[in-house]
Amino acid sequence: MKAGCKMKVLLIGGGGREHALAWKLAQSLQVEQILVAPGNPGIAAVEKCQCIDLNLADLNKVADFAEENSIDLTVVGPEATLVAGIVDIFNSRGLPIFGPTKAAAELEGSKAFSKEIMAKYHIPTAYFKTFTDAAAAKAYVEEKGAPIVIKTDGLAAGKGVVVAMTKAEALAAIDSMMIDHKFGQSGAKLVIEEFMEGEEASLLAFTDGVMVVPMIAAQDHKRVNDGDEGPNTGGMGAYAPAPVLTEPLKVKATETILKPIIAAMANEGRRYTGCLYAGLMIKGEDIKVVEFNCRFGDPETQAVLPLLDGDLAEIMLACATNSLSEDMVSWKKEAAVCVVMASEGYPAHYPLGLAITGTETADAMDDVIVFHAGTKIENGKLVTAGGRVLGVTALGSGIKQAKDKAYKAVEKISFTNAHYRKDIAWRALK
Question: Is 239 helix (H, G, I), strand (E, B) or coil?
Answer without folding.
Answer: strand
